Amino acid sequence: MKPSRRSLYLLPLAGVALLASVMTSSMAASATPSALPPAAPFTPNAIVQAALATPAPQDALAAKATAATMPTTANPGIVVPGGRRQGLTFAELGALDPLQLRGVEGQNGVEFSVRRDEVVTSAILHLVYSYSPALLPDLSQLNVLINGELAATLPLPREQAGMQVARDVSIDPRFITEFNHVNVELVGHYTRKCEDPAHSSLWASVSNHSSLELTYATLQSKPDLADLPRPFFDRRDVRRLELPFVLPGKPDIGTLEAAGAVASWFGANAGYRGALFPTQFDNAPLTGNAVVFATADNRPTGIALPEIAGPTLAIVDRQAPAQGKLLLVLGRNEAELKTAAEALSLGGNELAGSSVTITNVKSLAPRAPYDAPNWLPTDRPVHFGELAAERDLTVSGYSAGAVRVNLRVPPDLFMWHSKGAPIDLDYRYSVRPTADRSSLNISVNDGFVESLPIPARPTSMFDPARYLSSILPDGTAQAHKRVYIPPLLLTPRAQLRLHFFYDIPNTGECHGRMLENVVGTIDPNSVIDVSSFPHYIALPDLAAFANSGFPFTRMADLSETAVILPDDASASDYSLYLLEMGRMGASTGYPVLGVTVASAGDVEKFADKDLLVLGAPGHQPLLQKWANSMSFSGDGNATRFTVSDIVYKVEDWWQGGERGVSRPPARADLSLVSSESNAVVTAFQSPLRRGRSVVALIGAAGQSDANLASALLDSDVVPMIQGATDVIHGRSVTVTSNGNTYYVGHLSPLDYLRWALSSHPILLALSGVFAALVFGALFYRALRAVATRRLSE
């Protein structure tokens, strides 16, 4: 088998290890594997001026350090000599459902990538599939393709038809590059005579529990800031980012704020993967990459650092036996340390060399509310070309996927009594030869919105569209439609999906192969406009916090946010703080350069900010001080929850219970002592100033911190976080209270009047009577004046 030219360049990189792996791979076994019995499924940049500095020396021998108890990353792989081994299921690679193969040449697959500092030395595909009993074994087969190269051909014996089959396929690592496609192709036939290429018996299904087992060898690279965020984060890596942060034994406020900015930058890069930042004091982890923060007077004692001459960024190799690199963020004082962190967060693309000293950072203009780069702008119409690459707006084929456009909107858009967000949709489609069921289906996440029919070629001589064929000889046509996204579907994690569904023509038998010559395109000039909706929301609402970091992310740089840590903060408290900064960066796409870190004793100074409170009962004094303002309190031994009786109340017309104008009071207080490690998330109005919010993340050192961190990064758990107070235990979330409602934002006087009266029908009736009396009195006086004037004449 001859390898592709694009894959041969990997040979000199892998060296002897790669050649040995290739020589020992069994190509014959992959071509005709023996049948196995049925098996269960496997389980905007700142301008940074930098001067080259003397490279920093390597750190001293790493010693074992005390790390925060944080959850491990999902499927991190197993360390093996010279690299690691990792198994990834098709579901983890993005296949949410089994891969369906239809027709005589049906094909489907998944994509995977390889880190730049690694090379694959061995690859095994654990394939789990089933196929139609109607397929002829001597004419039908499954082909496994890697980047278009044939890796194996699997027979389809009749005795295993209709059953789940498991096969292992060895893949030549020479075919694997940085970005890869694994496709499974069905070559299916059900008769030796003329056949219908769209016959229902031509099918096979590949389980998304199929997995790809890869063994990697690590490639050595020269430390270079130009490669950032690599090797600390590589966008080709689908795993959750876990990057240790090394702080001095007693980090000061400036160090913590600098660490938060860097964590948010890595979190923004990690995006959907999520990011963990386990905190260690004084010493780096035994092996692997880490980020080190230090000032001249406050530095980790277990790491050898160069003399600090100003705001400095450097990458150094770790001394053997430790493997990996250290990213050094240094400054002579707190201000310079924050300057170095700002240069890294905003001007990372301008850096080069193993070490730089920052001479100047030109700050950007102050941020405005709701201007986060990841969020849909709410002050102007937005073209689809701004939200997705033009190549991603076109699909082709009968089994093509949907066009996907992310619509991350602020959670406080007030869309009451409206059709929803308007979209002026322009699209082009392949004209159908005859009328059929073809349509453009529009949905948001899993919520259906509208179906637009794709018409057939007009036959009436009076239809102007009939004469478009001379202008559009390729058989395409263009259409425009205004579509409204319902308010309930437009959430902070909304994704617009536009699926061109072309009905497969019934060609019948003896008509040859079916041509997949159908295309659908969403015009980049299509527009969505939410600028007409004001910002107004009822709080507390933990769903807004869990999904988008609101209300803190209202300012992308968190300039109106203060994080309140316990006076005796532990490594787990710092790890949770950094995790939250990473989540904020992932939500907004901007580093948290304006965040303020403080202790409980200084909280009065930040009454004009929204507060993020961290700490366990007994260590965070604000939990006792503000106990009357929230539906949770605890002293480290017993826990008290205020349970809402909202489920027991009949709708209160005067209080507007239907729409949450004023939530019902608490039904009871529940006190308990539990041996289990539960974490609590609660939100309430700031006792320091009306209109400001407090969100408290409460957990005890140990398993509860792990539960809290895991829940905040788990895409299945996050949608369950809502209300005002939630108890988290493992992957279980219990909403205990909806809290006391307060409102943030502004409405026009007319909108506010309409909204306020809509949930108070009796008040509305009284207002109508009062208005009638007022107008009646005015008309009465006016008519009396007219009558008096006539009588006097």
UniProtKB/TrEMBL annotation:
Cellular localisation: Cell inner membrane
A GO biological process held by the record: UDP-alpha-D-glucose metabolic process
Signal peptide interval: 1-28
GO cellular component: plasma membrane
Main location per the UniProt record: membrane
Superkingdom of origin: Bacteria
Ranges that cross the membrane: 762-783
Function: Binds the cellulose synthase activator, bis-(3'-5') cyclic diguanylic acid (c-di-GMP).
Protein family membership: Belongs to the AcsB/BcsB family.
Subunit description: Tightly associated with the cellulose synthase catalytic subunit.
Identification of the protein by name: Cyclic di-GMP-binding protein
Annotated organism of origin: Trinickia symbiotica
Lineage: Bacteria, Pseudomonadati, Pseudomonadota, Betaproteobacteria, Burkholderiales
